[in-house]
């Protein structure tokens, strides 16, 4: 069987990539949901390999969430992108918003004052401003009370991330809303019904540039994968992500696990490993955001 691919924006997913997704982040999806997920990846151009989109299942229903990096990438690809600013508001900050009107009489919000005093106190709100050439800056302003339900979510990983990394998650949430509105990014993190009648047909194209050294994964072979094979693959992926984070010793790994209250059986189960990998992915995403701050954020 020839290696097959689907397009996700400017990149491609090989059959090996698809098999990896099925064994890791999409493990809880049934066949119909997985086909729908792949179709959504192809349609939107979101790449699940780099965390631009990921699925979850709650009470049998699939929810697809688009990552922070996907919104930024799509905004940068849009005409007139001029950057963004995203800030949290603490209880001891001096913060004031005013309304102004543009030349056509349309009202818009601007930050009139945001002065910081230490100690800043707890986070009480936040705002994000998306800048686009020729367009009035678009601001999203939110209070913490508007996202409290996410810290109380019934979805385990969502609750964990919003509890352990609240400030980062809150900033991403606000920024996604601002970019979505300013650049017309029509991507929603909503539950998706996935009956077989609603699943778009998945027709992968054959790769044209296969080299003799390229490994070909046959669908019959993938069906023979055992639970042990999947666990080994997950552990390998987990170790690679630890290395990406600069965590290379067993002691450092154990400290990370203890710090983040990660519960692992002995031996660890597939679901436990997948949860840990999702946590590592989130940390890698945060690391990338910090490294790219100078490129993405405008000065205050």
Written account of the structure:
The protein has 300 residues and is α+β, with helices and mostly antiparallel strands. It has three domains: 1-78 and 184-225, no CATH class; 79-180, no CATH class; 226-300, no CATH class. The protein has eleven helices and eleven strands. The strands form four sheets. It has a three-stranded antiparallel sheet. It has a three-stranded antiparallel sheet with strand order 3-4-10. A three-stranded antiparallel sheet has the order 5-8-9, covered by helices on one side. Helix 3 (68-77) packs parallel to helix 6. Mean pLDDT is 79; it is low at 190-224 and 289-300.
Q: Strand order of the main beta sheet, please?
A: 2-1-11
Instruction: Give helix % range.
Output: 40-55%
Cα distance spanning the termini: 55 Å
What is the mean pLDDT? 79
Quickly count the domains. 3
Low-pLDDT stretches: 190-224, 289-300
Structural class: alpha+beta
Count of separate DSSP helical elements:
11
Radius of gyration: 21 Å
Largest pleated sheet: 3 strands, antiparallel
The amount of beta strand, in percent, is 15-25%
The secondary-structure element order is EEHHEEHEEEEEHHHEEHHHHH
The global form is globular
State the total count of DSSP E strands.
11
């Amino acid at each position: 069987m020839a290696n097959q691919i689907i397009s996700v924006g400017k990149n491609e997913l090989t059959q090996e990539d698809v098999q990896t997704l099925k064994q890791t982040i999409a493990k809880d999806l049934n066949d119909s949901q997985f086909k729908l997920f792949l179709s959504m990846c192809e349609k939107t151009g979101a790449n699940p390999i780099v965390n631009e989109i990921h699925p979850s299942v709650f009470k049998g229903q699939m929810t697809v969430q688009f990552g922070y990096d996907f919104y930024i990438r799509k905004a940068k690809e849009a005409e007139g992108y001029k950057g963004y600013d995203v800030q949290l508001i603490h209880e001891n900050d001096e913060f004031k918003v005013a309304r102004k009107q543009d030349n056509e009489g349309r009202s818009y919000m601007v930050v009139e004052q945001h002065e910081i005093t230490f100690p800043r106190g707890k986070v009480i709100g936040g705002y994000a401003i998306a800048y686009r050439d020729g367009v009035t800056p678009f601001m999203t302003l939110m209070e913490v009370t508007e996202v409290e339900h996410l810290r109380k979510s019934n979805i385990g990983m969502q609750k964990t991330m919003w509890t352990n990394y609240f400030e980062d998650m809150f900033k991403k949430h606000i920024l996604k809303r601002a970019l979505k509105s300013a650049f017309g990014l029509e991507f929603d993190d909503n539950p998706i019904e996935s009956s077989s009648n609603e699943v778009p047909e998945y027709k992968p194209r054959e790769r044209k540039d296969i080299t003799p050294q390229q490994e070909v994964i046959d669908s019959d072979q993938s069906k023979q994968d055992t639970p042990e094979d999947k666990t080994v693959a997950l552990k390998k992926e987990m170790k690679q992500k630890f290395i990406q984070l600069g965590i290379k010793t067993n002691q450092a790994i154990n400290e990370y696990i203890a710090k983040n209250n990660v519960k692992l059986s002995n031996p660890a189960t597939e679901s436990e490993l997948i949860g840990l990998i999702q946590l590592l992915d989130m940390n890698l995403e945060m690391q990338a955001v910090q490294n790219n701050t100078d490129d993405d954020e405008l000065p205050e």
